[in-house]
Design goal:
alpha+beta; membrane
């Protein structure tokens, strides 16, 4: 079992440019599926207060469900965030009846632009409208990012691009249990079949 320090180093190593010209990379050591069972739960899962798409303050640990598929991104992302949500959505459908036992979660790393209203519209296209989207105060979002080992940084867009700035960020889907334990982590680009297979494994073994 890896320590949290070990998998944080790996996850930080896959922070890539997710905006602007849409360039990204997946290091060769990061396989299509990689498990990072943490020795301790992510404390911020229970302590960070975020806002849902209705503007209601929420603790993620209060969500109903057995497992949570968590992604940190932003609504203005032109390519890799939509790809991650598409993978999540297709995996969700592949789970069939088991999909009722998981909760897809999107946490915005761009709370200045991602208001609850923006995120409510952003999440509408997810299957069964099952995606729970969250924003919040900058301090709370950054604390939650640190808990998961997610790094992000604002970057200026090329002149003429709409939006003013983009955000470089870690491109990872996290499978989390109710206590905030990270069971597995998958890089963006993991096939929906692999995602659904991993989720089923944990549904049957925890």
């Amino acid at each position: 079992m890896r320590s949290r320090t070990d998998y944080y180093k790996i996850l930080i190593g896959v922070a890539v440019v997710a905006v602007g010209i849409g360039v990204g990379f997946l290091p060769s050591y990061f396989e299509k599926k990689k498990e990072f069972a943490g020795e301790e739960p992510v404390i911020e899962w229970k302590t960070a207060i975020v806002k849902n798409s209705k503007g209601i303050e929420t603790k993620l640990s209060g969500l109903e469900g057995k497992l949570f598929l968590v992604y940190f991104g932003f609504s203005h992302c032109p390519d890799l965030c939509p790809l991650a949500l598409e993978e999540m959505g297709r995996a969700y459908r592949l789970l069939g009846p088991d999909s009722s036992r998981i909760v897809p979660v999107f946490v915005s790393i761009d709370p200045e632009r991602d208001t609850p209203e923006v995120l409510e519209k952003y999440a509408e296209g997810f299957p069964d409208r099952a995606l729970k989207a969250f924003t919040g105060g900058r301090d709370q979002i950054e604390a939650l990012q640190r808990g998961f080992g997610v790094v992000s940084k604002k970057v200026p867009l090329p002149q003429g691009k709409v939006g003013g700035y983009g955000v470089d960020h870690t491109l990872v889907l996290y499978l989390v249990d109710r206590n905030g334990n990270i069971l597995s982590a998958y890089p963006t680009g993991t096939s929906p079949e692999e995602l659904s297979k991993g989720i089923r494994h944990w549904l049957r073994n925890i």
